[in-house]
User: Fold these one by one.
Assistant:
Number 1:
Amino acid sequence: MKAIIPVAGMGTRLRPHTFSHPKVMLNVAGKPIIGHIMDKLIEAGIDEAIIIVGYLGNMIEDWLVKHYNIKFTFVNQEEQLGLAHAIWMCESFVVENEPLFIILGDTIFDVDLEPVLKSPCSSLGVKEVSDPRRFGVAVTGGGKILKLVEKPDTPVSNLAIVGLYFLRQAGTLFSCINHLIDNRIRTKGEYQLTDALQLMIENGERFTTFPVHGWYDCGKPETLLSTNEILLKNHPPSKQHSGCIINDPVFIAGSAVLENAIIGPNTTIGEQAVITNSIVRDSIIGDDARVTHIMLDRSIVGNNASVTGNPNEINIGDFSEIRLG
Ligand code: UTP
């Protein structure tokens, strides 16, 4: 089955990291976000991926082709006019009466997709959230979705749509997207996938929901770090490094160099990174980064970046209390 993965966006909420890397190439728990997504899709039987690239797309393309042996089609979305527009660009690569799976490029998930991909009707991945006002939500009744509401002011449903979409027949989605584009129907300035799906429902398409318990957002620094923490829980214990203390779970690249360091928990250290005389926990340290004489907590250090603190020398008497900033 084919999957479409839109990854054309600039990832502005993750700047400055996304100035030099597309969001999906950021390392979380030892591999790029897109790597986690691809591994899950391939495990579920996806054998062809249509990747919508735009901003820094070559980096994504090069990495995917190097690491996966499935058929890729890369579609360039020059202007990010919204998700429905991104999907619209793939029309000539999908077969009208074949099923299709769409997943957003910043959504790492932990869900058994096999039954979803065999579902007799279209289905959207949902997660129960306590505050649905930030999300598009699905209002359900009688075993199906009755309507979709974008960022509801009133609590119509707490089932947030989390970026995994199974379409029984690709053609019905594309005819609704074409309707939006032909009539320039935008919401908040963008061609919205939710609007196209809502149109499908209004045209009589039956949609169900499937629960996505493991849904790990990577769109903001704080969610990238918490996703790093969650994914590392499944990581095997790290090897010991002499003269260092490793508090699992961590991912330490084989070529990283650690000297007199305390690493972890919940920390990813990239290839050829050098950590000296430092404590690093709950953090992501990029490839070739240098970290010296510092304590880092909930930090993201980009590739080739360098962070140096001061070794403090103090001489204090009994009962003193000092706090170094
Ligand atoms: P986001 O809304 O998170 O946008 O898109 P973004 O650019 O990645 O991040 P911010 O908001 O600027 O920080 C969700 C997913 O849809 C893709 C994005 O690449 C991301 O994977 N997308 C969105 C497109 O491919 N094209 C679009 O026109 C819009």
Number 2:
Amino acid sequence: MQVKKILGAMVVLGLFFINATAQNNYHPKADKKLLKTIEQNFTDAAAQYKVLEKNLPADKFPKTYFPATGKYEFSNSGWWCSGFYPGTLLYLYQETKDTALYNEAMRILAVLKKEQFNTSTHDLGFMMYCSFGNANQIAPSPAYKEILLNSAKSLATRFNPAVGCIKSWDGKPNEYLVIIDNMMNLKLLFWATQASGDSSFYKIAVSHANTTMKNHFRADNSSYHVLNYNATTGAVQQKKTAQGFADESAWARGQAWGLYGYTETYRETKDKKYLDQANKIASFILNHPNFPADKIAYWDFNAPDIPDALRDASAAAIMASAFIELSGYVNKKTAKKYFATAEMILKNLSAEKYKAAAGTNGGFILQHGVGHMPNKTEIDVPLTYGDYYFVEAMLRYKNSTKK
Ligand code: GLY
């Protein structure tokens, strides 16, 4: 009986792997013109980031820039976006081999390093994996490993087994707030299990992904932004928004985080239910009547002033990066659709409307992101994460079309 069970499991696993690879026979062809544009974008982005570097106070991190007033907004290392500047520099270094970019990344990583012990935020995946994770890919070192493992330990302190999720925001005593964005912090935990052999990180990540899959999504596969759980019973007390147009609307960046997060969770676990979830999110995005023909999402799919509503270049960049990866896991027909979407996003973000002219935009690469509309902050401005995922998507495009 036991042998039968094991054999059965082997067959299922075998079929699964055959399926996973058989579905993966899509070899996208590069659009030569776009590839040339991308090469130019890397050069231009490197020059832009030197403008940004010149204007950056020594202990600060870039958040945004207001073209109308020429003013920057910087942050301390504890802000959720602090990993994107070093992460972008390291991606650009990979392409340009410009050591000045690498040296600047090393300088700012030394400022960021102390956040490994920060237990007051759920954003340690963004902050530490996009930065130290990228540095460790380029030049693996025990020092990076220690920083990343400490960061994962700090993140794990925010997990509550009764809820099954990592706490995103510290709310009122009766609130346990979890946002869809938090799917993006799981990669750090998956990495930590691989690096240490300690499965507790992996288990937390999987629990978070499962609980989010169960509660965060609507029947149409769009996601709520914020869920408020009862910390003792794990019951859902409230479903709402913070950064979207309305509690029942589909905030564009939230949909992008979900798409990227479940694609990544599938990559890390190879559990098909996460791939299914990513495909469902993709289907919501691609079939939505308010998803524009140029594929640069409005800041909210239900923004009341569509077609005049602002676009969010950051959501578009995240979607492009996610769609390229997801196209590697699905059947050929679907892969073509996903890849074409990413290609169109990259073409449009590379055009004058979104890509800043040399020396402008405070040195940021992309224009026209929307940070927090309800707060009336960071509206129609460059955003550090928009740049990060744009550069990542271009790298993914280049690599996935390599012969
Ligand atoms: N994670 C916050 C945001 O996407 O604005």
